[in-house]
């Protein structure tokens, strides 16, 4: 089972996440997608739009489940607006601790 990790940081990163979700909806995504999304500028609405897209994706995934179609097959593991317990700033080292590398 293929798993991809996407770290979407800032407005441009959130827009990349939106495009990747559309690819997953079309059946061109990995088997599993782990997403860390961080956008410090919550006023721009990018993160809210992606949350709505994820809700629609989940509804469509349920509708297409088990019908043999390639659409909406990617399982999402979402970490949106991630905060470390205790309010510590997120570091690359923290994010990389979630990754597993295999040969």
Task: Describe it.
The protein contains three helices and three strands; from the N terminus they run βαβαβα. Strand 1, helix 1 and strand 2 form a beta-alpha-beta unit. It has one domain. Strands 1-2-3 form a three-stranded parallel β-sheet. It has 103 residues and is an alpha/beta fold. The protein has helices at 10-25, 46-64, 92-96, and strands at residues 3-9, 32-38, 75-80. The radius of gyration is 14 Å and the shape is globular. Helix content is 39%, strand content 19%. Helix 1 (10-25) packs parallel to helix 2. The mean pLDDT is 82.
The order of strands across the largest sheet is 1-2-3
Which band does the percent of strand residues land in? 15-25%
Form type: globular
For the terminal residues, how far apart are their CA atoms?
A: 14 Å
| SSE pattern, N- to C-terminal | EHEHEH
Stretches where pLDDT falls below 50 for ≥5 residues? none
